[in-house]
Amino acid sequence: MIIAVLSRSLGRQCGISEYARCLAERLGGVSVKSVEELSASFSPVFIQYEPSLYNGLPDLLDEVSQVEGIPVIDIHTEIPIDIVPALISILKSSAVIAVKREPRLGAWLLPHISYAPVGTPRTPPDEIHLGSFGFALPNKRYDILIDLATRLHIPLTILAATANATPGIEDLSQAYTDYLVGRAFQSRENINIVSAFLSHEQIVDKLRDCSHLLCAMENLERTSGSMRMMALANRPIVSLYCAGAEEVGAVQVQSFDEITLPFLERSHPTPSFPDGLDAYLGLIRSLEKVYA
Predict the structure, then answer these.
(1) CA pseudo-torsion sign 50, 54, 58, 63
(2) How far apart, in Å, do the first and last CA atoms of the chain sit?
(3) What is the DSSP string of 178-236?
(4) Tens-binned pLDDT, residue by residue, of the chain (292 aa)
(5) SS3 call for 17
(6) Domains, in order of start, for the chain
(7) DSSP code for 41
(8) Could you tell me if 76 and 52 are in contact, meaning their C-beta atoms sit under 8 angstroms apart?
(9) CA-CA distances (angstroms) from residue 243 to 101, 107, 208, 218, 248?
(10) Is the Cα dihedral 233, 180, 7, 109 positive or negative?
(11) pTM to 2 decimal places
């Protein structure tokens, strides 16, 4: 099977775009932005479905109808409980429905996969240097990290590219970037906001300049792509309590007020987490058997 991964946001500064590129790379396939770039030789086609990138369900169904190979609708978002049965009923045997969150009857569960580790691991820096990574959006709460670095008088690097998947997201993201830069300037501490969009390899390399990585998101009851990326740097991750932190083996705290210099000077475990690729490979093997 020649595998393709279809993402309408491919090439934009978007988490799903990056995931599509990563998935295609891990599966030895290709990533495309539109169904017009596909041919009958590509099968299965993993459609990265996020509602904000589509004009309603009819738009998705029209795209599926144009896929000549086996379409796999890889649903990234939280969806109403009746959507999966509705899709299965409409598409019947013409497509595979997969979900990223809770298992749903009749749908494959395809958990998020991770990037493969890159480069040669480096020894952590001698001095404490905090870091974080993710798109510049208010739910990341990077301002809390700035407050922490200011309180402890220690360096902080935040890799926070402006997201531009949709116009509304881009405006929100740029406004938050401007806010963070202003907060960093006012702190008069060594706080660096990196808003450039970096490659996977560049991100991991810069995170390895840090001694500890932080996540301030609350109520993160799902996989976090940014925390998985931070985990590849092989540095301790400190996070508020959440499912995403549990998944990567982060050090969890109730509040960042618990983080002091003695806390950071203690030895903390580095993260580890499942790769997630086996679920995709299992689905592909199943399709090979059916369509051989």
Answers:
(1) negative
(2) 10
(3) HHHHHHHHHHTSSEEEE-S---HHHHHHHHTT-SEEEE--SS--S--HHHHHHHTT---
(4) 789 999 999 989 888 899 999 999 999 999 999 999 998 889 999 999 988 899 988 898 899 999 998 999 998 876 666 677 777 777 777 788 888 877 777 888 898 888 877 777 889 999 999 999 999 999 999 999 999 999 999 999 999 999 888 888 999 999 999 999 999 999 989 999 999 999 888 999 999 999 999 999 876 666 678 888 899 999 999 999 887 788 888 999 999 999 999 999 999 999 887 788 999 999 999 988 877 6
(5) helix
(6) 2-113+275-291 (3.40.50), 130-265 (3.40.50.2000)
(7) T
(8) no
(9) 12, 22, 24, 10, 9
(10) positive
(11) 0.82
Element (H, E) at 142: helix 142-152
DSSP secondary structure letter of residue 52: G
Dist CA 163 CA 137 (whole Å)? 8
* Bond from prior residue into 44 cis (ω within 30 degrees of 0): yes
Report the SS3 class of residue 162: coil
Strand partners, 6: 32, 47
Positive or negative torsion for Cα 193, 199, 203, 209:
negative
Q: How many residues does the chain have?
A: 292
Give the separation between CA 259 and CA 109, rounded to whole angstroms.
Answer: 37
- Determine the Cα–Cα distance for residues 255 and 232; give it in Å rounded to an integer: 24
Round to whole Å and give the CA distance between 197 and 64: 31
The backbone torsions φ and ψ at residue 71, rounded to the nearest 5 degrees and listed phi first, read -80, 135
Pick from 191, 175, 60: nearest CA to 129: 191
Q: Are 233 and 207 in contact (CB under 8 A)?
A: yes
Q: Annotate 92-129 with b (16+ C-beta within 10 A) or e (fewer).
A: eeebbbbbbeeebeebbebbbbbbeeeeeeeebeeebb
Q: What is the 3-state secondary structure (H, E, C) of 69-103?
A: CCEEEEECCCCCCCHHHHHHHHHHHHCEEEECCCC
SS3 238: strand
